[in-house]
Amino acid sequence: MNIRKIYELLYSHYGDLGWWPADNDEEIIIGAVLTQNTSWKNVEIALRRMKDYQILGISEICKSSEDTIKKAIMPSGFYNRKAMTLKRLSSGIIERFGSVEAMKKQSAMDVANFLGSIHGIGPETRDDILLYALGFPAFIIDSYTTRIFSRFTGKEKYQHDLLTGRVPIGDIPLNVEELKNIHAMLVLTAKEHCRKKPVCGGCPLETKCSFALEKEK
DNA sequence: CTCCAGGAGA
DNA sequence: TCTCCGGGAG
Fold it and tell me: What is the pTM of this model?
């Protein structure tokens, strides 16, 4: 599977999507936690509520009670776990780095290891933060990506360096802007075409996808 | 009422 | 590998 080829197929269809809507990097970090196993629609409601509660920021989270956070983020679901995760992450950032800006000056591996050490932050949330909030190269693997790659390659469980060695990304020939965009494009592809119940017609990957090719026969 | 979408613990 | 955690939307 040639990731560059997939990028070109997607790009000629979608172009630059300009992704992860947020006013600042801290909102991206918070959104990355809230969107765990949750649709972005629900996250938007939760972010709006956090703004209303005046707790939409790293230091604000440190200062506010866990109960207040729970109330604010309720619409995004799993609020007990997520409130604790936001607390641990926020205080960890302040204690370890002092600020989000300071994190960007560290090495990718140091920041990745820090994020991975936070209870409630798994591989996907870690990579969301690394890529979209901090600008480090990371290839984000979520359930959409897994589904698309599995069908595209025709392998039940697609296993590759991409899924095991996400940080650092090694030989993936994509720069940071392309990495941001390919994840955005893969999400759109999954929502529009590569759903649980596939809609292969018009999919940008249709001509090269073994699932679509197999189905045609 | 059913579906959706990460991470941890067992 | 299975189960729990919790909402919003179709």
Answer: 0.94
